[in-house]
Amino acid sequence: MPGPARAAAGPSNIVQERCRWGADLDGDGFADPLFLWDPGTRRLSIRVTALAAAQNRPPQVLRSRATVFLRNAVPQ
Fold this sequence. Notes:
Layout: E1 35-38, E2 43-52, E3 60-69
Antiparallel strand pairs: 1-2, 2-3
């Protein structure tokens, strides 16, 4: 059984609607921006939807989320 293959990933793998950045990607009725800043809590939410494809396998949509607290930001 062969080991895992390496594949290049970059901006072309990130899923967004062309000319509609932050559009509703999953049809839940809410926008899906890549970056979402909340000045009240000083948290930056990062949501990435990527398209991954491997040889002899159908493409998969992968989602990843992270939240970063920016304590040195100036509250508004």
